[in-house]
């Protein structure tokens, strides 16, 4: 499984114009005359369904450390486009090898199988027929007040979290009351009679984090 994801990363980088190979190849290591990527499996967490791949960008001293950093950033862009979450670390000089080195850690999330990794199914939230494009969190809960109350008939409280990049319009909203769907593959969890009850907007470096709470009168499950 680990070898398969390493092969996948090498292919992605090579197709993106970065010379890439295994960190510890069976053949003799060739002299580095241009920025290259050495790829290895750093960590596989089967419980969390994540695999971390280490991409070490190496470049000759003559090109300077900035060239190495630029190539590492290019690798991040390529791997992020393929679904990875990347972290580029600082540049260091390796005197024995006469090379600059910038490590990039790329985390892929999915279901780990004997054949590799399969992407986790994605969910969507649709409020009043409008798909919320930037949803990053969803939860729903019921609570009863009093010993004679029935949980089955209790209203639902729904929390929807979105992260909206700067410059994106997000003013479109459905008329109340509306229907809210939580959809994943063929399954639909439908909440009826929804009205928004609370809204919080938090400014962050790359956008607005919006957290909204809604109340729903009932729920229907379909598949």
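Q: What amino acid sequence fits the structure above?
A:
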């Amino acid at each position: 499984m680990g070898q398969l994801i390493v092969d996948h990363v090498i292919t992605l980088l090579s197709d993106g114009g970065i010379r890439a190979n295994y960190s510890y190849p069976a053949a003799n290591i060739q002299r580095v005359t241009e920025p290259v990527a050495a790829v290895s499996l750093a960590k596989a967490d089967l419980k969390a369904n994540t695999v971390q791949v280490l991409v070490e960008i190496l470049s000759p001293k003559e090109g300077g450390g900035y060239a190495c950093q630029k190539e590492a950033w290019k690798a991040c862009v390529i791997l992020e486009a393929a679904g990875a979450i990347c972290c580029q670390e600082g540049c260091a000089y390796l005197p024995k090898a006469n090379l600059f080195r910038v490590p990039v850690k790329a985390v892929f999330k999915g279901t780990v199988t004997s054949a590799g990794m399969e992407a986790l199914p994605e969910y969507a939230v649709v409020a009043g027929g409008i798909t919320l494009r930037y949803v990053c969190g969803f939860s729903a809960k019921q609570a009863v007040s009093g010993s004679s109350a029935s949980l089955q008939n209790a209203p639902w409280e729904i929390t929807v979290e979105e992260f909206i990049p700067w410059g994106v319009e997000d003013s479109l909203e459905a008329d109340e009351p509306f229907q809210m769907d939580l959809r994943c593959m063929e399954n639909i969890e439908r909440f009826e009679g929804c009205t928004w009850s609370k809204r919080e907007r938090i400014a962050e470096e790359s956008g607005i984090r919006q957290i909204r709470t809604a109340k729903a009168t009932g729920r229907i499950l379909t598949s």
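Q: And what stands out in the fold?
A: The mean pLDDT is 86.
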